[in-house]
């Protein structure tokens, strides 16, 4: 696949320069960051909270958080897009939990700053590459129950115990579905993702 | 536990839903600098990012961009502690509001109302915090010993008029009055115009109801190579280069 590589090479240095400018508190850099990832993060947050006004609030929080914490990402090697999406997802799920009265602290660990160093050397172009299409295709290939558990995990932040309660299935069954679903995703994406 | 036993839990860990004991174990491995688990979780984070990017595409309102840019636009880290009272007060208000709301109304209604109240309050807090930062920046520019100022609009009978203050290390402050209200989908954009080069965007702003405006572009300015500061009316997303005739031009003394 040559196209994704070109896109990755093309976008990588740009993202790095952007992180540098964000660290220098250049407001224009925030505008560019928004132009690059605003729609993507809004789509994700809207999928989680399903309310446009709240989704916009949460996206605003996400960008402010990135602006305030950009120092925890390594501008030489950090991928700001995936990091930003992780923060957006965390904000959205955190909101979902608090509004549903679910306990924030049982199974979930949503402190994205812990993960910031792991975004080092991640392919910066990953989000605009062909791989997004690949993951969509891989999701569509999953059996319905398997797709459901992945969606509950990703878009609602449910732990396996919570899925078991929600779907009325024994925990053992849920764990099998999750394991199988993740294995299929890994098989579909493994080569593409780890080659970066 | 060894890395092989943790392998199947990397994705759950990356999504924040791994359970004990695996969660703690993976964390320990990563903190110890375990390369196997580090690489595994990194790959899982990539997959998570891709899953996030696979959400059905949706379009936020154009105002969101403004809100985000308006709520920063300047250095916030240095003033972090100054915000604490603002947030503490807002949190207290939220608790009080929650108490009265819950004791008076049915729970389902309250939950929805509280949600939107808390969202609104969050936005207000951000706006206030950003305003404090903006005023602090403005004051720093005004009071800087190396600040240069330039007036504009002095000879015109008609609006707008005001002053521009430029501090080489702190930035540009524009204070204007008699600014006409912009049309609904338009905004004011400030420009720093270097000598013999293209104008550089210096931020978006709106005027107040009374026609006044204060706008700060924090950061370094090379005074020697700057000819003027100008303001144009642009589409609300802002422009890379001016597309209308400036209604403010403040020429800086050579
Ligand atoms: Zn390990």
Written description of the protein model:
The complex is a heterodimer of chains A (196) and B (254). Chain A is an all-alpha fold. Helices cover 71% and strands 0% of the residues of chain A. Chain A is globular and about 50 Å long. In chain A, helix 2 (27-49) packs across helix 3 and helix 2 (27-49) packs across helix 4 (80-99). Chain A has helices spanning 2-23, 27-49, 52-69, 80-99, 131-141, 144-156, 160-167, 171-194. Chain B is α+β, with helices and mostly antiparallel strands and 254 residues long. Helix content of chain B is 42%, strand content 21%. Chain B has a four-stranded antiparallel beta sheet with strand order 1-2-3-6, covered by helices on one side. Chain B has a four-stranded antiparallel beta sheet with strand order 5-4-7-8. In chain B, helix 6 (84-104) packs antiparallel against helix 7 (107-143). The chains are: A mainly alpha (196), B alpha+beta (254). Zinc ion binds next to helix 4 of chain B.
Largest sheet of chain B: 4 strands, antiparallel
Largest interface: A-B, 79 and 59 residues
Question: Any guess at the CATH architecture of the domain at 2-106 in chain A?
Answer: Orthogonal Bundle
The spatial strand order of the largest sheet of chain B comes to 1-2-3-6
**What is the percent of helical residues of chain B?**
40-55%
Layout of helices and strands:
The complex is a heterodimer of chains A (196) and B (254).
Chain A: H1 2-23, H2 27-49, H3 52-69, H4 80-99, H5 131-141, H6 144-156, H7 160-167, H8 171-194
Chain B: H1 3-6, H2 10-14, H3 22-31, H4 35-53, H5 62-71, H6 84-104, H7 107-143, E1 148-152, E2 161-167, E3 171-177, E4 186-194, E5 200-205, E6 213-218, E7 226-235, E8 248-251
Antiparallel strand pairs in B: 1-2, 2-3, 3-6, 4-5, 4-7, 7-8
Bound molecules: zinc ion.
């Amino acid at each position: 696949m040559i196209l994704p590589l070109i896109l990755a090479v093309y976008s990588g240095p740009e993202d790095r320069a952007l992180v540098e400018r964000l660290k220098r508190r250049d407001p224009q850099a925030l505008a560019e960051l928004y132009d690059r990832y605003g729609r993507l993060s809004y789509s994700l947050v809207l999928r989680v909270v399903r309310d446009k006004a709240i989704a916009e609030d949460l996206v605003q929080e996400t960008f402010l958080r990135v602006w305030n914490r950009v120092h925890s990402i390594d501008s030489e090697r950090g991928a700001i897009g995936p990091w930003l999406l992780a923060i957006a997802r965390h904000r959205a799920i955190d909101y979902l939990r608090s509004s549903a009265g679910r306990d924030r602290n049982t199974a979930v660990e949503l402190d994205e700053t812990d993960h910031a160093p792991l975004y080092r050397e991640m392919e910066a172009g990953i989000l605009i590459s062909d791989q997004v299409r690949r993951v969509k295709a891989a999701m569509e290939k999953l059996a319905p129950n398997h797709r459901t558990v992945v969606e509950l995990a990703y878009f609602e932040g449910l732990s396996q115990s919570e899925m078991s309660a929600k779907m009325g299935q024994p925990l053992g069954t849920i764990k099998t579905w999750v394991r199988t679903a993740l294995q299929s995703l890994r098989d579909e994406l493994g080569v593409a993702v780890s080659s970066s | 536990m060894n890395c092989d036993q943790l392998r199947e839990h990397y994705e759950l860990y990356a999504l924040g839903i791994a359970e004990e004991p695996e969660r703690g174990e993976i964390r320990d491995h990563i903190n110890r600098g375990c390369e196997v688990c580090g690489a595994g979780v990194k790959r899982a984070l990539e997959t998570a990012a891709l899953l996030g990017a696979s959400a059905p595409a949706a379009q936020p309102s154009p105002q969101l961009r403004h809100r985000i840019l308006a709520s920063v636009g300047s250095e916030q880290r240095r003033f972090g502690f100054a915000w604490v009272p603002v947030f503490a007060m807002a949190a207290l208000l939220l608790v009080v509001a929650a108490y009265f709301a819950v004791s008076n109304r049915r729970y389902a209604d309250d939950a929805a109302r509280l949600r939107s109240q808390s969202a609104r309050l969050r936005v207000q807090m951000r706006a206030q915090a950003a305003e404090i930062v903006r005023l602090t920046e403005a004051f720093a520019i005004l009071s800087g010993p190396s600040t240069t100022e330039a007036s504009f609009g002095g000879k015109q009978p008609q609006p707008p008029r005001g002053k521009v203050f430029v501090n080489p290390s702190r930035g540009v402050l524009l204070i204007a009055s008699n600014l006409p209200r912009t049309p609904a989908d338009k905004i004011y954009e400030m420009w720093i115009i270097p000598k013999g080069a293209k104008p550089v965007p210096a931020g978006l702003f709106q005027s107040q109801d009374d026609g006044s405006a204060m706008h700060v572009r924090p950061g370094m300015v090379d005074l020697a190579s700057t000819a003027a500061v100008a303001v144009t009316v642009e589409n609300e997303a802002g422009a890379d280069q001016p597309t209308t005739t400036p209604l403010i031009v403040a020429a800086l003394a050579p």
